């Protein structure tokens, strides 16, 4: 029965009727894997990382995998391993290419560094997965994962222009900011800056500044 504890007992009796009894250590039957923790990728200052540009930088040199403790109500967590895989959506996870695996980590571990040299080899758009696997003393395992995507392409903004009021209230004039040969009229005190929505196919737009 799952979660039950068992002992093996040996009883020896001699011809005079004297007995000696010895018992084994307790053996607990655990049938379920541990419960998974949460995996995060963090930079040196503790910001969550999902996208990287793939160039050697302080982000790559200090990219840490952290995880909240996994738990096992039947036995104990025996070890952790961390694996970096290249995602292939057309194949099963078991066949995804392993780029790096950590050595076996002790049960009190909660973080490790991802080697930067493995990440700098990845091309634009490469999608990866960092997997943390916990193994219990009963040899059951469970994994939790965090995504990591390489984005080497800058965002695209197709047009930006300045607009200001003309000589009449209904008249507006505009200037494409790429047209460096044209200047704003001296009388213009206020103007609008308008731009087409910025786009980024890989990681999306984080901020827009002007």
Keywords for this entry:
Immunoglobulin-like, three-stranded antiparallel β-sheet, five-stranded mixed β-sheet, mainly beta, 210 residues, Fibronectin type-III domain-containing protein, rod-shaped, FN3_sf
Please give a structural write-up.
- This protein is mainly β and 210 residues long.
- It has two domains: 38-150, Immunoglobulin-like, CATH 2.60.40; 154-209.
- The chain contains two helices and 15 strands.
- It has a five-stranded mixed sheet, with no helix packed on it. A three-stranded antiparallel sheet has the order 5-7-10, with no helix packed on it. A three-stranded antiparallel sheet has the order 14-13-15, with no helix packed on it.
- The longest helix is centred in the middle third of the chain and has 5 residues, at 116-120.
- The termini are far apart.
The SS-based structural class is mainly beta
Number of domains: 2
CA-to-CA gap between the ends?
A: 67 Å
Low-pLDDT windows of residues: none
Q: Examine the secondary-structure arrangement and name the CATH architecture of the largest domain.
A: Sandwich
Beta fraction: 35-45%
**How many strand units?**
15
What topology emerges from the helices and strands here?
Layout: E1 5-6, E2 9-13, E3 19-23, E4 27-28, E5 39-42, E6 51-52, H1 58-61, E7 64-67, E8 77-86, E9 97-101, E10 111-113, H2 116-120, E11 127-136, E12 141-150, E13 160-165, E14 172-176, E15 192-195
Parallel strand pairs: 6-12
Antiparallel strand pairs: 1-4, 2-3, 5-7, 7-10, 8-9, 8-11, 11-12, 13-14, 13-15
């Amino acid at each position: 029965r799952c979660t039950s504890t068992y002992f093996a007992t040996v009883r020896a009796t001699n011809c005079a009727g004297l007995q000696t009894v010895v018992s084994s250590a307790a053996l607990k039957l655990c049938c379920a894997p541990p419960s998974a923790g949460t995996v995060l990728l963090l930079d040196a200052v503790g910001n969550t990382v999902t996208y990287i540009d793939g160039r050697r930088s302080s982000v790559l040199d200090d990219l840490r995998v952290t995880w909240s403790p996994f738990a096992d109500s039947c036995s104990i967590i025996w070890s952790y391993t961390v694996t970096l895989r290249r995602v292939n959506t057309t194949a099963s996870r078991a066949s995804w290419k392993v780029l790096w695996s950590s050595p076996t980590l002790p049960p009190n571990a909660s973080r490790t560094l991802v080697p930067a040299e493995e990440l700098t080899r990845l091309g634009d758009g490469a999608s990866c997965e960092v997997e943390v696997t916990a193994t219990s003393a009963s040899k059951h395992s469970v994994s939790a994962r965090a995504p990591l995507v390489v984005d080497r392409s800058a965002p695209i903004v197709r047009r930006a222009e300045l607009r200001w009021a003309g000589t009449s209230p209904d008249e507006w004039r505009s200037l494409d900011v790429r047209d460096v040969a044209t200047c704003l009229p001296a009388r213009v005190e206020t103007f609008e800056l308008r731009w087409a929505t910025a786009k980024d196919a890989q990681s999306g737009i984080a901020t827009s500044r002007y």
